[in-house]
Amino acid sequence: MNELRDERLQVMLSPEELAAVDDFRFRHRMPTRAAAVRELLKLGLAAIGVDAANGGKSRDYGVFSRGPGGHRLTKDLPESE
Questions:
Q1: Tens-digit pLDDT string for the chain (81 aa)
Q2: Is residue 28 domain-resident?
């Protein structure tokens, strides 16, 4: 996995969610909450079949074939459009 971390993600958690992250962190002897959150994200993505280390783009994980406002994604357009 690329160790370059140049993006910041801020997440608000409930007290119960934070306790669950901390429990996971301490149970697995992780050095920081951030490390625990990264591992939980990796595990969660792997559980649904997404390889977080493959460098994919967010558009590759969309549920719908159309973007905001009903616009078709570029990869869905025929060559002539």
A1: 556 778 899 999 999 999 999 999 999 999 999 999 999 999 999 888 888 776 655 555 555 555 555 555 555 545 544
A2: yes
Dihedral over Cα of 56, 57, 63, 64: its sign? negative
Q: How many residues does the chain have?
A: 81
Quickly count: other Cβ atoms within 10 Å of residue 10's Cβ.
4
Instruction: Please report the DSSP string for 51-80 in residue order.
Output: -GGG---GGGG-SSSB-GGGPBPGGGS-TT
22 belongs to a structural domain: yes
On whether the CB atoms of residues 2 and 55 are closer than 8 A, the answer is yes
**Half-sphere exposure of 37 toward its Cβ, with a 13 Å CA cutoff?**
12
pTM of the model: 0.61
- Report helix, strand or coil for 28: coil
How many structural domains are present in the chain? 1
